[in-house]
């Protein structure tokens, strides 16, 4: 069973710089939750904090009734929290199948005693079967024997996603899952993320700059700017939020950049277009 993730008053300081400033929001179990914001808003810092790569300076993070704050990264993983990274991290020389098996080994309980009673081989068979199921789910069945180095960029990103699924996570954290993909590949991965939520009883938190994907797959969106939460709601709510409009377009939310006098189109329509295109950088 997945669980509710609560981020309560979290601040992260780097020698005086507040990467995160009193951030609070809740991720409901079984939802796809996007975290967006302009460059430098604190999105990566938040993901790193959720995985205990960055320590929390103030506040706390709870996953169900377990406090994540202060745990070592391997303990956080032990709670069923897995993540992917912005840059692809797979073994290029290994086959797709072997890359996926790496994700399973952490789950293998069989030790020396188990092996002595023949449990090792049975467990190994079960692990391999599960890897094939997950590969099929991710559309990688036909490529299990191919070395990762031969995959297209889109397939590599799906391999990374599938490998994270092999950890059987309860909470999956994705850092820019469709970065660098073309439109068709992005839409396909977006569908895969939604399907994973539905099929695997999974909660998903993701950071993404592709607003088309965010708006189509997120159940809820939290918007950060300068380390603070400036909006939290459904995709439709946040794309029409005046403060979000201000953060993405710069300047006065009532008179967004490029709109002289605001006479032709309401700011909400402009930002809706802009958020669909992606943030300015
Ligand atoms: N390890 C670190 N040491 C010092 N400062 C950091 C560190 N990590 C992040 N920061 C600072 O924290 C702020 C937020 O950065 P962060 O990378 O979290 O933003 P972001 O929203 O992910 O940006 P982008 O969209 O450009 O990736 C920035 O000012 C950044 O320089």
From TrEMBL:
<keyword id="KW-0813">Transport</keyword>
<dbReference type="Pfam" id="PF00005">
    <property type="entry name" value="ABC_tran"/>
</dbReference>
<feature type="region of interest" description="Disordered">
    <location>
        <begin position="256"/>
        <end position="281"/>
    </location>
</feature>
<keyword id="KW-0067">ATP-binding</keyword>
<dbReference type="InterPro" id="IPR003593">
    <property type="entry name" value="AAA+_ATPase"/>
</dbReference>
<dbReference type="GO" id="GO:0005524">
    <property type="term" value="F:ATP binding"/>
</dbReference>
<dbReference type="InterPro" id="IPR027417">
    <property type="entry name" value="P-loop_NTPase"/>
</dbReference>
<dbReference type="InterPro" id="IPR051120">
    <property type="entry name" value="ABC_AA/LPS_Transport"/>
</dbReference>
<dbReference type="InterPro" id="IPR017871">
    <property type="entry name" value="ABC_transporter-like_CS"/>
</dbReference>
<dbReference type="Pfam" id="PF12399">
    <property type="entry name" value="BCA_ABC_TP_C"/>
</dbReference>
<feature type="domain" description="ABC transporter">
    <location>
        <begin position="5"/>
        <end position="251"/>
    </location>
</feature>
<dbReference type="InterPro" id="IPR003439">
    <property type="entry name" value="ABC_transporter-like_ATP-bd"/>
</dbReference>
<protein>
    <submittedName>
        <fullName>ABC transporter ATP-binding protein</fullName>
    </submittedName>
</protein>
<keyword id="KW-0547">Nucleotide-binding</keyword>
<dbReference type="InterPro" id="IPR032823">
    <property type="entry name" value="BCA_ABC_TP_C"/>
</dbReference>
<feature type="compositionally biased region" description="Basic and acidic residues">
    <location>
        <begin position="271"/>
        <end position="281"/>
    </location>
</feature>
């Amino acid at each position: 069973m997945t669980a509710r993730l609560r981020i309560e008053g979290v601040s992260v300081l780097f020698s005086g710089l507040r990467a995160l400033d009193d951030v609070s929001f809740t991720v409901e179990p079984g939802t796809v939750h996007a975290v967006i914001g302009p460059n430098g808003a604190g999105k990566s810092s938040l993901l790193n904090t959720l995985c205990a790569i960055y320590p929390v300076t103030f506040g706390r993070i709870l996953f169900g009734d377990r406090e994540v704050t202060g745990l070592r990264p391997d303990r956080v993983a032990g709670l069923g929290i897995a993540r992917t990274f912005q840059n692809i991290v797979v073994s290029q020389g290994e086959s797709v199948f072997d890359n996926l098996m790496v994700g399973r080994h952490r789950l293998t309980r069989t030790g020396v005693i188990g092996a002595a009673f023949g449990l090792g081989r049975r467990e190994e068979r079960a692990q391999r079967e599960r890897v094939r199921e997950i590969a099929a789910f991710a559309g990688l069945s036909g490529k299990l024997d191919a070395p990762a180095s031969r995959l297209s960029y889109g397939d590599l990103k799906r391999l990374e996603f599938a490998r994270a699924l092999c950890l059987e996570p309860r909470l999956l954290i994705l850092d820019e899952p469709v970065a660098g993909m073309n439109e068709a590949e992005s839409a396909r991965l977006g569908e895969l993320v939604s399907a994973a939520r539905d099929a695997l009883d999974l909660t998903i938190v993701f950071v993404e700059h592709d607003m088309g994907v965010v708006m189509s797959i997120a159940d809820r969106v939290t918007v950060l700017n300068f380390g603070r939460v400036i909006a939290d709601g459904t995709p439709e709510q946040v794309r029409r939020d005046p403060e979000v409009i201000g953060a993405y377009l710069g300047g006065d939310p009532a008179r967004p950049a490029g709109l002289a006098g605001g006479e032709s189109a309401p700011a909400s329509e402009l930002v809706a277009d802009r958020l669909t295109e992606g943030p300015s950088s």
